[in-house]
Fold this sequence. Notes:
By secondary structure, the chain is an alpha+beta fold. It has helices spanning 2-25, 29-40, 105-109, 111-127, 135-142, and strands at residues 44-52, 56-63, 78-84, 88-92, 100-101.
Amino acid sequence: xxxxxxxxxxxxxxxxxxxxxxxxxxxxxxxxxxxxxxxxxxxxxxxxxxxxxxxxxxxxxxxxxxxxxxxxxxxxxxxxxxxxxxxxxxxxxxxxxxxxxxxxxxxxxxxxxxxxxxxxxxxxxxxxxxxxxxxxxxxxxxxxxxxxxxx
Length: 151
C-alpha cells in the first residue's frame, strides 16, 4: 500500500514537472520545424565557423535569398549552432529573437523539444564535414580589399 502511494506520488510529480517544462518551452515550438526545414531544404546555407579558444565553435547559417553576411547586418534572420566542448549542441532558431534549444534538463524533460533536438543534432552530425569555412575566410570573401593577403 505504501509503495503504491509513493509510486503514484512520484508519477504525479514527474507528470507535473513535464507539463511545466512543456509550458516553458512551448513559446519556441513554432520555430522548431521551420528552422529545421530551412536547413534541410538548404533555404539557409552555411556561412562560416567561428572557433573561440578551442572551447566553443559557432556555426552560422544565413538565408540564401538575402545573401547579406551576418556580420554586417543586425537582425535575427539566421540560425546558429553552438558546440561547447563536453557540453553538446545548442541551437539558436531562426525567427525568434531569443529562441533556443539548449542541451539541458528542460530539453530532456520535454518530449517535443527533445524530438527536435535529436533531429537537429543528427542533421548537423551528418553534414558538419561540409562546414569548414572560417569567419576570416568569409570576411575576406565579402571584403577582399580589407584582406591581409590582398596584393
